[in-house]
Amino acid sequence: MERTTAFFADQVSLDQVVQNLIYASGTVGALMVVAGLLMIDAGTTRSANLYNSTIEKMVGFFVGFATYFVLGFGFWASQYYIMAGGTMMDSLKDWWFFGVLSNSHAQNVDPAIFPGVNTFQIFIFFLATFAGIINVLLHFAVSERMKASAYYVTCVVATAVSSVLSWAVWGSVGPLTNAGFHDFFGIGFVYIFPTGIALVLVPQLGKRPGMFAPHPKVQVYRAPSIGLAATGLITIFSGLPMVILSCLFFVAPGAYAISVTMADTSLGIALNNYALSWAGGAIMGALISYRTKNYIYLLFGPLAGYVSGAPGFDVYLPWQMFLVSLGAPIASWLVYDFTSKREIDEHKLFPLFIGAGLYALVMVGLLKGGTPHGGYWGIEEGPYAYQHGAISLLMQLVGFALCLGTGIVTGLVLTVILKATTGLRVPEEEQAEGLDKLRWNLDNDGEQPEVQTDVYVASESVAFPAKAS
Fold it and tell me: How much is the average pLDDT of 51-73?
């Protein structure tokens, strides 16, 4: 049978396959993060709402995931189109759900038109997973209090807005990166942005029954399994090294690694920075926990340490990373203590992504300001020349303000719309009764209660009731 479609072997060479496997492993790591987050939720959510909370996170994840496949990737990829003289609309046409490049076999695409198609297609999956993670994180802030319909609408909007934001703040030739904003792991659009939405929604939703004061049906809010939450923490720790691989470009000669921001780095240094960020955060978190007699800092510590290093895993030296990570749990502790004393019912996003997140971006600006980055490999002159820019403390602050502010504006607009349509808040009495029972007919242990049903069994001409076994 004669081949009727052009075949371009360079698109499916062994070198391409190796890179495809590297980036695919990042997707596996991101899915492990999702699993870890669900474990943390299962260990810290009140039992009466546990199934409902978990299933809403899962649905929210896939709502964001699917939405990203429809339109999200084209926004992020557009920075490279603009660099090459194209437009954002060109990128959206190529990479939306029915786009030519998102639906073409790599071997049939001329590399002169678009090289490395497989890698870009895998990146849709990779970044769609993080779009879902944004929604899972947001649900941590509104869990048990926000109507499911309102939350799912928020998931669609948050995915669309964060996709546009990713174009501006994550990559090597986006406008803020080119101007000096440095965010290796994308904490701006993945972590800080949903925190901005939560800053608006949390006051609207109020406190959960039993969280700060006894309720007639909930004397105290109890976390069912801190051990499960700790297991979730280790699951996240195990998955993220593979994500680091997907935040690197590998170029000739051999497998020379440069970061997604085009800063000088190496795979070993980036991975060791990641490891030491968790170690420093865990040690300081443990010290705070033993000092305050509060278990929460043992969980916050490693996560805060990780957040503090995420923008700079590519540019720190390991000893610098360890010292920076020691300060991150303190930043989270200050925010946690501030919000707890004021009975603000949000104990995850605010401490980690306002406290440690702001600290992280500032420390990169202070310690690594002036480090060359930005542009694109192989370009020697012009506004997109390789490493033409430099990390700037001012731009770190601008980037934080943009990401948080975009979330706040998104939350304000959504609040007005949702209040006028679906409604926003689950009534307090329903929260106290337990959404598992009210929505899914499950008891507090997650088991379906026995239903006593009269079953009529016929015996010749006589009918008599019998209890269902």
Answer: 97
Q: Indicate if the pLDDT at residue 410 is higher than 50.
A: yes
pLDDT value of residue 356: 97
Largest Cα separation within the chain, whole Å, is 96
pLDDT tops 60 at residue 454: no
> Domain containing 252: what range?
9-260+411-440
Q: How far is CA 408 from CA 205, 274, 284, 414, in A?
A: 15, 29, 31, 10
Structure tokens at 288: 């705070």
Is 247 in contact with 184 (CB distance < 8 Å)?
yes
Cβ-based burial of 453 (10 A; exposed 0-12, middle 13-18, buried ≥19): exposed
Residue of 229, 356, 212, 224 lying closest to 298 (CA atoms): 229
Instruction: Note the pTM of the prediction, 2 decimals.
Output: 0.92
End-to-end CA distance of the chain: 63
372 in Cβ contact with 390 (< 8 Å): yes
Report whether 241 contacts 180 (CB < 8 A): no
Instruction: Encode pLDDT of 215-228 as tens digits.
Output: 999 999 988 898 99
- DSSP letter (8 states) at residue 459: E
Given a contact cutoff of 8 angstroms between Cβ atoms, the answer to whether 339 and 351 are in contact is: yes
Cα 172 from Cα 385, distance rounded (Å): 10
Please indicate, yes or no, whether residues 183 and 284 belong to a single structural domain of this protein: no
Please say whether the dihedral angle defined by the alpha carbons of residues 430, 436, 442 and 445, taken in this order, is positive or negative: negative
Beta partners for residue 248, in sequence order: 259
221 and 338 in a single domain? The answer is no
Q: Are residues 286 and 222 in the same domain?
A: no
Distance CA 329, CA 351 (A): 9
- pLDDT tens digits, residue range 191-200? 999 999 999 9
Residue 456: pLDDT band (50, 70, 90) is very low
